[in-house]
Design goal:
Strand order of the largest sheet: 5-4-3-6-7-8
Strand content: 5-15%
Mean pLDDT: 79
Largest sheet: 6 strands, mixed
Low-confidence stretches: 187-202
Radius of gyration: 31 Å
Shape: elongated
Distance between the termini: 33 Å
CATH class of the largest domain: Alpha Beta
Helix content: 40-55%
CATH topology of the largest domain: Rossmann fold
Structural class: alpha/beta
CATH architecture of the largest domain: 3-Layer(aba) Sandwich
CATH superfamily of the largest domain: von Willebrand factor, type A domain
Number of domains: 2
Length: about 350
């Protein structure tokens, strides 16, 4: 735990003086009570309930201490029941994934690695699946059900095309459903209308305004993007990455396959089987993520294993000021209520 405004903590020692002041006032009051001839009798009658006199002031002291600590802005890593961490696996299912330069094929290797990733990932992190080829689709909404995720991974079907930018936009729309993010909002960012296979533009509400945040600052959402080729259609990849960077979402990119293309590919096709590493590296850099090249099945499994272990740090640092202030208010209210109930006046 650390504090955002440590200057308020220097006021805590002053609270030590309050019990001393209370004891002095109490002694002074008792001296005045000596004027009563039956003081001994009164003390004897109330000796069993002396603690009642001190409880409300003690609670009030605790409340004041709580308020000072709250003002200091305590921040801690906590798991709040209303907060969640979500990761989107955006996986390339283009026809090039059938190439066997990674044994047995790129697709099978990526499916095996994704299953291992789910095993390595902490169980309290939700995972969603987005598949993309010429269009992008939400294959599975974020869920904690690992069995459902594995069944979805087993059922991947390959298609033509590679719309990397569409996959990023759709992943963001899945992570932030209340922001009404839509492929149509990207306009002609890629030089032509987006393919929009997974998102319909008609009848959509306009995107809500939001304040951009620092890249990589969102600790409750991340995207892991796997691709084996270069964009052939859809939204411009870097324009989509800018959307993620503005929302603080890291994109960890896994480049799968051969950097120089597949030598055995038909004429004119090798360029589409070649990794666009400069663009993919820039996506990771822009968003505060990492880029990994996985040229073998073992390397791919290693990358996913490392990412799964790293995602354990996706716990939120939460300022506890509001909770502490609320607790202090409740304690002060209890002190006042007890004072009125027992003595007919506030503490």
């Amino acid at each position: 735990m650390h504090f955002l405004r440590t200057q308020y903590l220097w006021l805590l020692p002053i609270l030590v003086l309050l019990p001393l002041l209370y004891a002095w006032l109490l002694r002074r009051r008792n001296r005045r009570a000596l004027a009563y001839s039956n003081l001994a009798t009164a003390r004897a009658a109330q000796s069993g309930r002396q603690w009642r006199r001190h409880l409300p002031p003690a609670l009030l002291l605790v409340a004041l201490a709580g308020l000072l600590v709250a003002a200091a802005g305590p921040v801690a890593r906590v798991s709040l029941p209303w907060a969640r961490t979500s990761i989107i696996l955006a996986m390339d299912v283009s026809l090039s994934m059938a190439v066997n330069d990674i044994q047995p094929t790129r697709m099978i290797a990526s499916q095996d690695a994704a299953r291992q990733f789910l095993r390595e990932l902490p169980r309290d992190i939700e995972v969603g699946l987005v598949t993309f080829a010429g269009s992008s689709h939400v294959a599975r909404q974020p869920t904690l059900d690992r069995d459902q995720l594995q069944q979805t991974i087993d059922g991947f079907r390959m298609q033509m095309g590679t719309a990397v930018g569409d996959a990023i936009v759709l992943s963001l729309a899945t992570l932030f459903p209340d922001q009404a993010i839509d492929l149509g909002d990207m306009g002609l960012a890629g030089g032509k209308p987006p393919s929009g296979g997974g998102l319909e533009n008609k009848g959509k509400t306009p995107p809500r305004e939001f304040k951009p945040v620092a890249p990589g600052s969102n600790n409750s959402a991340a995207i892991i993007l796997l691709s084996d080729g270069r964009r052939t259609t859809g939204v411009d990849t870097l324009a989509a990455a800018k959307l993620a960077a503005d929302r603080g979402v890291r994109i960890h990119v896994v480049g799968l396959g051969t950097v120089d293309g597949v030598s055995s590919a038909p004429e004119g096709m090798a360029i589409y089987l070649q990794l666009d590493e400069p663009t993919l590296r820039e996506v990771a850099r822009m968003t505060g993520g990492q880029y990994h090249h996985a040229g073998t099945a073992d390397k791919l499994r290693s990358v996913y294993s490392n990412l799964g272990s790293r995602m354990e740090v996706v716990t939120r640092e939460t300022e506890l000021s509001a909770l502490l202030a609320l607790g202090a208010f409740v304690v002060a209210l209890a002190a006042a209520a007890l004072s009125v109930l027992w003595f007919g006046r506030a503490a």
